[in-house]
Amino acid sequence: MQIxxxxxxxxxxxxxxxxxxxxxxxxxxxKQAMAGPLTPRLPWIVFTNKxxxxxxxxxxxGAIVWLKVLAxxxxxxxxxxxxxxxxxxxxxxxxxxxxxxAFRVLGILLICEGVWLVANS
Length: 121
Known about the structure:
Layout: H1 2-26, H2 28-35, H3 41-47, H4 50-72, H5 75-78, H6 84-95, H7 102-119
Keywords: Cell membrane, Membrane, Transmembrane, Transmembrane helix
Protein name: Small multi-drug resistant family protein
Membrane topology: Multi-pass membrane protein
């Protein structure tokens, strides 16, 4: 049970990373830099944005946490749990006002069913 909670924590960090990256890439300074020509300064503007930086940090911490999961479980059992991140991302996206279609919900339900089947195998 403990390793499952560790896996879920890693997945939550990855989902949080996605939303941080989206916030950063939606910021005015990054949008303006992305709209202009490709210059050597562009990566600096993007990577020094606090939300982009936080997103990469969350990904890094999540990857380190995930190493504990891989040390305890077979990859074929652990990796399908990452599919839960899709469901969590859609839920949070809905709470933030993103449009979620019926087909997207159906796809997420199918992913969750697959995760359940793998977890019980």
